[in-house]
Amino acid sequence: MMEHQRCSWANSSPAMQTYHDQEWGRPTYVDQELFERLCLETYQAGLSWATVLNKRAAFHRDFHDYQIQAVAAMTTQEIDAAMQDAGIIRNRRKLEATVNNAQAWLKVTAKFGSFANYFWAFVGESMPLSREVPTQTPLSIALAKDLKKRGFKFIGPIAAYAFMQSVGAVNDHEKNCAWR
C-alpha cells in the first residue's frame, strides 16, 4: 500500500501524522473543536507542537473535554489542581487564560450565535493557498487584535495564525502534500 505524501513536519511521529491527516488544515465549524484548537495554540507559545500534542489527552481531562461552559466555570482550586498535573503544560498564565477565554468565548457566542459564525465571517471562507508559510499575516494580526478587544488573553498574531492554519482558514500544506 502506497502512503500519501504529507507535509514534512508531520512525519516526526505517528501522533503528528494522525493529527496532520485527520485534523490539521480541515475547515472546522464546531465551536467545541474550535475552542480546543485555540486553547492548544495558546499552550504552544514558546514550545513545540509535538509537546502540546503529546499532552492533549491530559488537557482534555483537566479542562472538562473543552466543554466551554464547564471551562468558563472553572475555579481557582481547579486551576491549582491542574498545576499539579505533570501531564499538561503547567504554566499558570496559560491555564488561567483558558478559563478567561472560555468566558470571552461565551460572550462572542451570545453576540454572533456561535464562535464559528464570528470566526468564519471574520476570516472568510476562501481558504487561500500560501506560497510561503508565514508566522503571521495582516489577517492574523487583525484577528488577534479583535479577540483581545473581546477579552481573550494569551493570543497574539502568531498564535492566531497557527489557529487559522489548524482549523482550515488557510491552506499551508506543503506543495507536494496530498492534502494541499
Automatic annotation (TrEMBL):
It comes from the Bacteria. This is DNA-3-methyladenine glycosylase I.
